[in-house]
């Protein structure tokens, strides 16, 4: 198994309310804006080592702009680009983005945009933001319930197998967990290049619309912070969808909420378990089995509402939160 991709770098989101979206990440999640350019703002958490892990770009509809991955080396970048080209998927080199060197941008089988690079800029804290901890790239913020780093992204796809196989066969991800439906085909997949259970997940989109986005997750490492954040979100009418609770798949402690632009955001209190076994056998949940279905989603805590399995961005007719929760 190759490891030509090493790490999730950043997620770019579209927002029809960029000022409110940026304020959400700053005020509630304690993130900082490191750069603004054109219609975009770039943000990072206080233990994100690179210049940004979140890009917010103004657009008519919420949704995913792109996901950026870092290769394990320049040679690894060239190898994975060679495999993407050989797969027939469309792509092109770009060097236009802030703080990122040459990157190969390409489309996933259902048009989610991704980018892979090797060169990028690290965040260098100015004196007033410098931490006394030499392994922390900036001081812990004094506002919000500050997240520590980006964790993962989740895509909605019409054909899980098609997208899963691209991630495994072309990009070199490992399939860590999978949910299989009554037809035996996958309805959800969790994939990683590190010992995390996933840097990316995908779940079946019942709307039949391609290219939708489910959520991006930031990590606390301390489950109590989910309760602290939930308290603050409730005080300020920021809608929450599920949690704080614990997933069966991945075993992570989670909270889902919606930023003002409409994108779903997940907070991870804890990653659950980690994988060190080089011969890992994919964990399979049989979601045609009612008990497995419920347990894989929720180990304990309240059940997830209908919207969790149907709402994504951009929002499509019949699948708005209002319609799904009516
Ligand atoms: Fe997630």
Specify the CATH homologous superfamily: 2,3-Dihydroxybiphenyl 1,2-Dioxygenase, domain 1
Largest sheet, in brief, is: 9 strands, mixed
How many discrete structural domains?
Answer: 1
Low-confidence stretches: none
CATH architecture: Roll
CATH topology category name: 2,3-Dihydroxybiphenyl 1,2-Dioxygenase, domain 1
Strand order of the largest sheet: 14-15-16-13-9-12-11-10-17
Distance between the termini: 46 Å
Describe the model:
The strands form two sheets. The chain has a nine-stranded mixed β-sheet, with helices on both faces. 18% of the residues lie in helices and 33% in strands. Strand 7 and strand 8 (113-117) form a beta hairpin. With 326 residues, it is of the alpha/beta class. The chain has helices at 18-27, 74-87, 160-170, 224-235, 290-297, 321-324; strands at 5-15, 32-37, 40-44, 54-58, 63-71, 91-94, 103-107, 113-117, 149-157, 174-180, 186-192, 200-204, 213-219, 240-246, 253-258, 264-270, 283-286. The structure holds fe (iii) ion (FE).
Spell out the blueprint of helices and strands.
Layout: E1 5-15, H1 18-27, E2 32-37, E3 40-44, E4 54-58, E5 63-71, H2 74-87, E6 91-94, E7 103-107, E8 113-117, E9 149-157, H3 160-170, E10 174-180, E11 186-192, E12 200-204, E13 213-219, H4 224-235, E14 240-246, E15 253-258, E16 264-270, E17 283-286, H5 290-297, H6 321-324
The protein binds fe (iii) ion.
Which key terms come to mind for this protein?
326 residues, 2,3-Dihydroxybiphenyl 1,2-Dioxygenase, domain 1, nine-stranded mixed beta sheet, eight-stranded mixed beta sheet, 17 strands, binds fe (iii) ion
